[in-house]
Amino acid sequence: QLQLVESGGALVQIGGSLRLSCVKSGFSFDYYAIGWFRQAPGKQREGVSCISASGDRAQYTDSEKGRLTISKDSARNAVHLRIDSLKLEDTGTYYCASGSSPDTDPRAYRSWGQGTQVTVSS
Q: What is the pLDDT of residue 39?
């Protein structure tokens, strides 16, 4: 079974940057699209970015364009999400998930990690 582990979450100040990582165990990332999702306290999980299995196609939700960069590191079997210019509303638990094609809809994914906490403070 594909297992995903997120890391990189932290307490950061407004305007700072973070790089989140999603590392897999089991099958290679080469066969799966990876999505990143954020769940703010009391809110539904929402997609923020995704990348194709080959790593040549990336998508971002309109509200996140320009601040997020998703990348694939095949050598380390990892997918990274860099978030710049952090805002208070970026606070939440960030999850990565694997699926057959890149999509920012959480319903398109079956395998999920446990999440990593990002807290943005003023």
A: 97
